[in-house]
Design goal:
Elements: E1 36-40, H1 49-58, E2 63-67, H2 82-86, E3 105-109, H3 115-119, H4 121-141, E4 145-149, H5 157-167, E5 175-181, H6 186-196, E6 203-208, E7 231-232, E8 239-240, H7 242-245, E9 252-258, E10 263-264, E11 270-271, H8 274-283, E12 289-293, H9 311-326, H10 333-338, H11 358-364, H12 368-386, H13 391-394, E13 398-403, H14 410-422, E14 426-432, H15 435-449, E15 454-458, E16 470-475, H16 487-494, E17 498-505, E18 508-517, H17 519-527, E19 538-539, E20 546-547, E21 552-553, E22 557-558, E23 573-580, E24 586-600, E25 603-606, E26 622-632, E27 637-646, E28 650-658, E29 684-685
Parallel strand pairs: 1-2, 1-12, 2-3, 3-4, 4-5, 5-6, 6-9, 9-12, 13-14, 13-16, 14-15, 16-17
Antiparallel strand pairs: 7-8, 10-11, 18-20, 18-21, 18-22, 18-24, 19-26, 23-27, 24-25, 24-26, 27-28, 28-29
Helix pairs in contact: 4-5, 5-6, 12-14
Bound molecules: S-adenosylmethionine.
């Protein structure tokens, strides 16, 4: 486990747990993410801003998107002079004229960046002036967001990116929503834009979910509408089609549903196809602004057409989306636990070097699943150890040592419960090095267990010299990456107390990893601005991300360790794993780590996304960033090299990502350099 620890940012709530975070309190079973639902008024709509707000409220919607200008923009700015575009806006030319209702309004802007304008110096200047003029007005109104379309032609994107960069300071309170169709060809363009803009955190996506949803080249939708080869949705137990998964890694602020993406049911009401429903249901828990837009925004176009929706129609669409939201599956225990901590980076705990706080232990103990697993493991182990004993020998209790017992000794309770289930006598010794935890542990011994049944010892397990050896050694010293809270080093130091045929629970553990694409995690780590923030691992409930390939194992630690070498050399590890990138190119931001643990025999615990122990909340995944996001083409490979290195007083990881098929020299843009050399940015104290 990893307990509560210092948050990496002062603005986010502080979490805690087994390499994990403090769970949110009091989220009811029925909790659902809130729904923000709005409609889009198109250019040329004659209604005033106030009329649109009234229409929005009468449909019980929460926001609207509407053009800033009252007239539809002509296709070019040829008829406007440079002087006109430099002068203040005319009151009559504006549709959004005051900050009234601005918090419920997303102004939309028709820009003029296209193949013609970028080749004509005057038109290019005009397109820039026009954008700045409107951004200036939006900045004046302090609108929370602005919506504008991704240029369709890739050659236009560098100029568009530069113009946006230049205009961003004019809208300090706004985020930019880039309207782009959810289509294969959109992603490289979006990726180019945000890369040119330096991964700006102000840039978000407004994804247009058109009538034709993309499908990967080798994918197959079965006759019953289900998909052959689903991928996991990070931070949940759900799956989705591979061609859509990459969008989960993007900062999707809004989901735009054009009216022509809906079908009409027998009663004449708009409904979505099964695939559309699955897609919308996957995104809804991420709380996007759902925007209904009139017919004509097909998946191949990023600009809306010009037919408005009647109020009666809008209400029908709104009702349907509300129905989808109402009927979302119940939030899982894990999701409720992690609510508010999704994508929130935390420094991994150091339970060996630091003394954990009371609140951290409280968090650990809120996960009944882990303790049920330990109880089952102890019971199975006790049965196995005693099945060949004669009745007379059964009278002598099995000696079980719980090392790192914590303040309330929940693992001691597991041992006693397991012994009861196995009908085997036990004697328990609980060892703890945290003096504050001893206070409550002693009290529990006195008031609940009794001194005859449970002995309490204040000691660092590595230096402890008990009089007798034990049958079973129980511990829980695991971090989000398995061995990253120094379970191997602690258990090596205490394995001399185990009889020759004694058993350690856990018996072994194995870290797993997968490349992760997540501009969110990367920008959160970059934002920290601490030296080495991109060479440090973070415990984080990963959600806004795409695992580009299935997880693979690195190495295994088994206990008792077969041989101990001087200077802890036997606990050094190196592994290299190669991942196939599927049918879509990706931008990799590092790798995500998990672990699997064999407690005893068939009793296991796992945080792997593909076989996570149901409802277990004790561990969040771990994120290892790379300094330079790595572009990988479809069908290529990514190699990850990880070292576990030990020194006299510390243990650390070093890592590098490379492209094994090109053998490109690691450098910015190709692959990462070796990170955290010598543990310079992050290490775990022995
Ligand atoms: C992750 S907590 C687990 C607490 C409790 N066993 C549970 O499962 O809820 C690990 C505990 O091991 C203790 N610990 C870590 N290293 C230790 C050492 N070398 N000797 C004794 N206790 C240690 C910590 O103080 C902490 O209480």
């Amino acid at each position: 486990m990893s307990p509560p620890h210092s948050p990496t940012s002062s603005t986010t709530p502080a979490p805690a747990s087994n390499g994990a975070s403090t769970p949110p309190h009091g989220i009811p079973d029925s909790y659902r993410a809130p729904l923000s639902l709005g409609f889009e008024a198109l250019p040329g709509d004659k209604r005033t801003h106030e009329d649109l707000i009234v229409a929005m409220e009468s449909c019980v919607m929460t926001f609207l998107a509407a053009p800033i200008c009252s007239e539809r923009e002509p296709a070019t700015l040829a008829n406007q002079s440079l002087e006109q575009l430099q002068s203040p806006l005319e009151y009559d030319s504006l549709a959004i004229r005051s900050p009234d209702y601005i918090s419920a309004t997303v102004p939309t802007i028709e820009h003029h960046f296209n193949e013609t304008s970028i080749k004509n110096q005057e038109l290019r200047l005009k397109a820039n002036l026009h954008l700045k003029r409107l951004f200036n007005w939006v900045g004046h109104l302090a609108a929370p967001s602005i919506l504008l379309s991704l240029p369709t032609c890739p050659s236009v994107i560098p100029e568009f990116a530069r113009a946006l960069n230049a205009a961003l300071p004019l809208v300090p309170y706004s985020t930019i929503w880039i309207r782009a169709p959810l289509a294969e060809e959109s992603w490289p363009k979006w990726n180019l834009l945000r890369s040119l803009m330096g991964q700006s955190v102000k840039l978000h996506l407004a994804l247009v979910v058109g009538p034709d949803l993309p499908m990967g080249p080798n994918e197959n939708v079965l006759a019953n509408g289900t998909h052959e080869d689903l991928v996991l949705v990070p931070g949940s137990s759900h799956t989705m089609e591979p061609a859509w998964a990459r969008w989960l890694a993007e900062p999707v602020a809004s989901l735009i549903l054009p009216a022509d993406s809906f079908l009409t049911n027998k009663k004449g009401f708009p409904v979505l196809s099964k695939r559309h429903q699955q897609l919308v249901r996957t995104f809804l828990p991420r709380e996007p602004y759902v925007l209904i837009t009139p017919t004509g925004t097909s998946s191949s176009s990023s600009s809306p057409s010009s037919t408005s929706l009647s109020q009666a129609d809008m209400s029908k669409y709104a009702e349907y989306i509300k129905y989808l939201h109402r009927t979302l599956p119940k939030t899982s225990i894990r999701d409720r636990f992690a609510n508010g901590y999704m994508d929130y980076l935390q420094a991994p705990l150091q339970p060996l070097m630091d003394h954990l706080e009371a609140q951290t232990y409280d968090v650990f103990e809120r996960d009944p699943v882990k303790y049920r697993k330990y109880t089952a493991a102890v019971a199975e182990c006790l049965r196995d150890r005693t099945k060949t004993l004669a009745a007379a020998e059964m009278i002598k209790p099995q000696l079980v040592m719980v090392v790192g017992a914590g303040p309330r000794g929940p693992l001691v309770d597991c041992v006693l419960k397991g012994a009861q289930q196995a009908k085997v006598n036990v004697k328990v010794i609980a060892v703890e090095k945290n003096p504050n935890a001893l206070v409550s542990l002693k009290r529990k011994q006195k008031e609940q267990w009794g001194e005859a049944l449970v002995e309490v010892v204040y000691a660092d397990m590595r230096q402890w010299k008990p009089k007798e050896k034990c049958d079973i050694l129980v511990s829980e010293l695991l971090g989000s990456f398995g061995d990253n809270e120094l379970s191997p080093e602690c258990l090596d130091g205490v394995q001399h107390v185990l009889k020759d045929d004694g058993v350690s629970i856990p018996q072994s553990y194995t870290p797993y990893l997968a490349p992760v694409s997540s501009s969110k995690l990367y920008s959160e780590a970059s934002k920290l601005k601490t030296p080495g923030s991109l060479e440090t691992s973070y415990v984080v409930m990963i959600r806004n991300a795409w695992l580009t390939s299935p997880v693979q194992p690195l190495w295994t630690f088994s206990h008792p360790a077969p041989a101990l070498l001087p200077d802890n050399l036997h606990n050094e590890r190196y592994a290299t794993v190669t991942f196939d990138i599927g049918a879509q190119p990706a931008l990799i931001h590092g790798f995500a780590g998990y672990f699997e643990c064999v407690l005893y025999g068939g009793v296991t615990m796992s945080t792997r996304p593909d076989n996570h122990t149901p409802d277990m909340t004790s561990w969040f995944p771990i994120y290892f960033p790379i300094r330079h996001p790595m572009h990988v083409p479809a069908g290529s490979k990514v190699g990850v090299h990880v070292w576990r290195v030990t020194g006299a007083h510390k243990v650390w990881y070093e890592w590098a990502m490379v492209k094994p098929d090109t053998m490109a020299v690691p450098a910015a843009g190709f692959g990462s350099l070796i990170h955290n050399v010598g543990g310079k940015s992050h290490w775990i104290g022995l």
